[in-house]
Specification:
Helix 2 crosses helix 3 and helix 3 packs across helix 4. The chain has a domain of 74 residues: Orthogonal Bundle (Arc Repressor Mutant, subunit A), CATH 1.10.10.10. It has five helices and three strands. It has a three-stranded antiparallel β-sheet with strand order 1-3-2. The mean pLDDT is 92. A hairpin with a 2-residue loop joins strand 2 and strand 3. It is 57% helix and 12% strand. The longest helix has 23 residues.
């Protein structure tokens, strides 16, 4: 698929919205927790270290954005990844951060321990 350049404004808005959804650390934790497979709100809250209410709110945002699918069974909802490209994006960002960190380490020496300690 070729992406037009310059990007049309409606596409710019869609891309920006996707990044806004992913800009919340709790949502990244929940997505990461779903790498292990579908899970309930309670399970995801525990894995991500969030309250059940907070996890539920963020899962709703991720679901509305099309990143998650939700299956209801009685009063329980199971969440699963609907768009696995989110993991590709995360890997790209992590690789870029690793490269940047390595480059910075090459130019900035580690701190020296104070003398006499």
């Amino acid at each position: 698929m070729s992406i037009p350049s310059p990007l049309p404004d409606p596409l710019v808005e869609l891309v920006a919205e996707r990044f806004r959804v992913l800009s919340e650390p709790a949502r990244i934790k929940l997505l990461d927790a779903l790498r292990a497979g579908p899970a309930s709100v309670g399970e995801l809250a525990a894995r991500a270290g969030l309250s059940q209410q907070n996890a539920s709110k963020h899962l709703g945002v991720l679901h509305s954005a099309g990143l998650l699918e939700r299956a209801r069974t009685g009063n329980t909802a199971q969440y699963a990844i609907a768009d696995p490209s989110v993991f590709t994006l995360c890997e790209l960002v992590c690789d870029a951060l690793r490269d940047r960190y390595s480059a910075l380490q090459a130019v900035i020496p580690p701190p020296q321990a104070p003398i006499g300690r």
